[in-house]
């Protein structure tokens, strides 16, 4: 029987709760589909600081390299807020992404038909929304040097090399070729030189994809257009910080940030994680929505392990649960038959996915 080695990083806050549910679902589909998953748990973020003194232990850096894919929850929280920057949990995640070379963060923003009433936007505006945000993940202002914090001033650097822009643009164009063949590249080229540079390179790459329609949009307008008329977008190609912000905004089309998954791919092993953070405000209460993480596990099966039938089973199980009115509290105001805990939602998806 085929066996895959999965790195598991539960993290902090709601991380352990939501990852446990994703594992439950993975176990159910792997039995149903006849393959084995072997899990190797690793530390990152706040829990790593507590146990080892650093947010990204060497053991984790080495451990992920030996896996077929890595499933990740989320890190961070107020407990670690007063540490110096290089010791903060988030630094560990940035470091891990860099170490793994996962420069392409794919963040689908889709609206489930079953949840068209879950958004504060009109159903006519959001029904059928299916956007793929392609976010550059290992460059830009989150990584640029110099970066310094002093008493009287502080600064960061937004920097992109030609190769960094080219390779993420290629990913976006390749994805667009399998979709509606439309890319909107989002930047701030009216103000930032780095965005002018970004545009020029994206235009260069576009020459190799004559079938793809390329447009450009400033990020402030893009934030507005996402809410005004999201269906105008197919693939959104953008940099690290803009993609981070726009994908959180796009989650409100779907109804909750607790629904949207992501896949980070690039040079080797992929990292699969929900787009949200560790939600310390609801951690430990059993009310987190595990669907974003369960969907991330589905992306892992599809993109990293090529287990497409198992991934389809999970996606269908999620739709079925939503269609039958099962809701966690974050989407509980809309067409709910039953409000579920995090664990109950995991049980339902695992059950449906295994049938
Ligand atoms: N990938 C990661 O590990 C990320 C970590 N963070 C970290 O997470 C911590 C909290 O950050 P926030 O800005 O509050 O963002 P957040 O995404 O953790 O939470 C924002 C809001 O969404 C809600 N929420 C998030 N996930 C949910 C889920 N699955 N089900 C139901 N509700 C959910 C939270 O309760 C909160 O009200 C910080 O330490 C931050 O640095 C933030 C973003 C990404
Ligand atoms: C916590 C940060 C390192 C990143 C972030 O917010 C994200 O990737 O969504
Ligand atoms: Mg974010």
Structure commentary:
With 355 residues, the chain is an alpha/beta fold. The protein has 2 domains: 1-102 and 260-355, Isopropylmalate Dehydrogenase (3-Layer(aba) Sandwich); 119-254, Isopropylmalate Dehydrogenase (3-Layer(aba) Sandwich), CATH 3.40.718.10. It contains 12 helices and 14 strands. It has helices at residues 15-33, 46-52, 58-65, 89-100, 123-126, 162-177, 193-206, 219-228, 240-254, 291-304, 308-323, 342-354; strands at 3-11, 36-41, 69-74, 104-110, 130-136, 148-149, 154-155, 182-187, 213-218, 235-238, 261-265, 270-274, 326-328, 338-340. The strands form 3 sheets. The protein has a 10-stranded mixed β-sheet, sandwiched between helices. A two-stranded antiparallel sheet has the order 6-7. Strands 13-14 form a two-stranded parallel sheet. The protein is globular, with a radius of gyration of 20 Å. The site of magnesium ion has 2 residues, from helix 9.
């Amino acid at each position: 029987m085929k066996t895959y080695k999965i790195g598991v990083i539960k993290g902090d806050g709601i991380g352990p709760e939501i990852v446990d549910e994703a594992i439950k679902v993975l176990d159910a589909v792997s039995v149903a589909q006849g393959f084995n998953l072997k899990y190797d748990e690793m530390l990152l973020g706040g829990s790593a600081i507590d146990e080892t003194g650093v947010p990204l232990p060497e053991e984790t850096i080495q451990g992920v390299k030996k896996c077929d894919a890595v499933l990740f929850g989320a890190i961070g929280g107020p407990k670690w807020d007063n540490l110096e920057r290089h010791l903060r949990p988030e630094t560990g995640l940035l470091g891990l992404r860099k170490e793994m070379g996962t420069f392409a963060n794919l963040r689908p923003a889709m609206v489930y038909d079953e949840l068209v009433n879950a958004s504060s936007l009109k159903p006519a505006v959001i029904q059928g929304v299916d956007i793929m945000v392609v976010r550059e993940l290992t460059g830009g202002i989150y990584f640029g040097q110099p970066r310094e914090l002093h008493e009287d001033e502080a600064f960061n650097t937004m920097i992109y090399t030609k190769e960094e822009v080219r390779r993420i643009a290629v990913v976006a164009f390749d994805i667009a070729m399998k979709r509606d063949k439309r890319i909107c590249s989002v930047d701030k080229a009216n103000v930032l030189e780095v965005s002018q540079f970004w545009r020029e390179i994206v235009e260069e790459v576009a020459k190799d994809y004559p079938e793809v329609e390329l447009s450009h949009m400033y990020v402030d307008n893009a934030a507005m257009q996402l809410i005004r008329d999201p269906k105008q977008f197919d693939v959104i190609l953008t940099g690290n910080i803009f993609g981070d912000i726009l994908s959180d905004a796009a989650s409100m089309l779907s109804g909750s940030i607790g629904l949207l998954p992501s896949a980070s791919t690039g040079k080797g092993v992929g990292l699969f994680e929900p787009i949200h953070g560790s939600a310390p405000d609801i951690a430990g209460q059993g009310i987190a929505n595990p669907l974003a993480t369960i969907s991330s596990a589905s992306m892992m099966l599809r993109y990293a392990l090529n287990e497409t039938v198992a991934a389809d089973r999970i996606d269908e199980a999620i739709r079925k649960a939503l269609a039958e009115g099962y809701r966690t509290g974050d989407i509980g105001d809309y067409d709910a038959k039953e409000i579920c805990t995090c664990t109950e939602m995991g049980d339902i998806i695992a059950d449906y996915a295994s049938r």
